[in-house]
Amino acid sequence: CTPNTKNQETRKRPNILLIVADDLGYADLGSFGGDIDTPNLDELARKGIRFSRFHASPFCATSRAMFLTGNDNHIAGMGVQGLTADTVGYEGHLTDRIVPFPAVLKKSGYSTFMSGKWHLGLRPEDNPHQKGFEHSFVLVESSSNHYSSKGIWKKNPISPYTEDGVETTWNEGDYSTDVYTDKLISYISESKEENRPFFGFAAYTSPHWPLQVDEKYWKKYEGRYDDGYEVLKEKRFESLKKAWMIPENAVLPPSHPRVKAWDSLSPEEQKKEARKMELYSGMVDNLDYNIGRLITHLKEIGEYENTLIVFMSDNGAAAEDFYYNDGVGPFLRERYTDNYEDMGKVNSYIAYGPQWAEAGSSPFKYYKGFTTEGGMNVPMIISGPGVANQGSINDSFFTLLDLAPTFYEVSETTYPNDWNGKEVKPLLGASLLPVLTGEAQFIHSEDYVFGMEHGGDAMLRKGKWKILNVDYPFQIENFALYDLSTDLAEQVDLKDQNPEKYQEMLAEWEKWSQNVGVILPTPRSQKSDE
Ligand SMILES: O=[N+]([O-])c1ccc(OS(=O)(=O)O)cc1
């Protein structure tokens, strides 16, 4: 075992850099067939493997709870994002039923740090500082202004930030993604000085709403989206096929009923809609620029070749638009404007809604929040030492539960049976290393079961089969059955044609949901985080 002392690392184990974009759509990146300029991510794609069927959870906090622990969101304590209840599985923070992998890596001698969004509990004892991160500069809650600490949630008019567990303030006018990158660069430099391998978590808050970014990043997209969101969705559907991200016989799913036809909008409305997407693309452009800064820094200090870089989105493209809703809307409308002239600036609150989110999640059904593929099938790229088949695309089924086991293997550490004297639940995923080294194309057998439940929205996957339930309130008979090998867009319910398979999948659901502790109807929140 490597000694837990600084400056004593004898043989350098690889660094691990996990970069998570917030609400990035599947169809945005250049290397996935999208139209936004992402040269730095494209370089990672050329040097690494793109995963076309990688699945996150449909929401931000549940995804973070899952990939940081290698376990189910209920087991981790995050049954429903933003809900805090005195009920096992729904505590609203990471519990002692699991161990976040940064804690184990830190104990083994890794320098562990993160910068960006936490969203796994507001209390001091829930802070990343207590969960295995030696250094952290974080937005503690779910979302924030990108230029200011002027909050977007009524309960926190000033957005809460901490550095190494201590409350800190935002330097007004600084831009989120730039600041988070500066911090990461300083933490990476420190680990280099100490000659320790690092695990770094770049928990970016971009391109999450409110859509804010400097004109220098969005101006070049001006005019690109003037034909509207339906056209963009179709264009991307075709370009994703050309990029081999979806099969030639894929079908484009119809839009969610919330999406208004582009042609029904007035010219003024269309102008504003187009600017939303220009801003979104500008944010992704800036995100890519900052990822380039990280890559350049790693190269400059001679650590690029020894760093496993994992890039992913935390869930599908986001359709939320709280500015116009009854709950948070009045607070937002008091503090922010949605004027065309101010769009993208510090005083502006703009989200791009289900209409553009569907262009982001083209070719899948729906978007963030749903257990459909549009909510969960996200882009992932892995590059770094030992990664074979550079530039290839892997189409096998993987999930965010597979990341922690991969990181344990790469860092030559093991997940413990107990932690701080308490027995912990076993890991659920499997290491991706055989895929990264080119020994295997897949790690999950046809019998592997992956389930996901969030507030009654549910899915379970076994081999090519998926049961999906997005009807409210949850009732087991509302599950539909899809064959994802022929129906990526989840359009043809096969439950009547395959009653045996359907019953088998329902039995798997019963077993799985009991094992992980799903409670339906969802327990009521004692305290909301949002
Ligand atoms: O419903 N909310 O309150 C809510 C939804 C999404 C959200 O963004 S997320 O990135 O944290 O999922 C924040 C709050």
Write the layout of secondary structure elements.
Elements: E1 15-21, H1 39-47, E2 48-55, H2 60-69, H3 73-76, E3 83-84, H4 101-107, E4 111-117, E5 135-139, E6 150-153, E7 156-158, E8 161-163, E9 166-168, H5 176-193, E10 198-203, H6 215-218, H7 229-242, H8 267-300, E11 307-313, H9 329-335, H10 353-360, H11 373-376, E12 377-383, E13 392-394, E14 398-399, H12 403-410, E15 418-419, E16 422-423, H13 433-436, E17 449-454, E18 457-462, E19 465-469, E20 480-483, H14 499-516, E21 527-528
Parallel strand pairs: 1-10, 1-11, 2-13, 2-14, 4-5, 4-10
Antiparallel strand pairs: 2-12, 3-21, 5-8, 6-7, 8-9, 11-12, 15-16, 17-18, 18-19, 19-20
Helix pairs in contact: 5-8, 7-10
The structure holds 4-nitrophenyl sulfate (4NS).
Note down, in words, how this protein is organized:
It is a single chain. The chain has helices spanning 39-47, 60-69, 73-76, 101-107, 176-193, 215-218, 229-242, 267-300, 329-335, 353-360, 373-376, 403-410, 433-436, 499-516, and strands at 15-21, 48-55, 83-84, 111-117, 135-139, 150-153, 156-158, 161-163, 166-168, 198-203, 307-313, 377-383, 392-394, 398-399, 418-419, 422-423, 449-454, 457-462, 465-469, 480-483, 527-528. The chain is α/β, with parallel strands linked by helices and 530 residues long. The model is unreliable at 1-9 (pLDDT under 50). The structure holds 4-nitrophenyl sulfate.
Feature tags:
28% helix; eleven-stranded mixed beta sheet; 14 helices; binds 4-nitrophenyl sulfate; disordered N terminus; 18% strand; four-stranded antiparallel beta sheet; single chain; 530 residues; alpha/beta
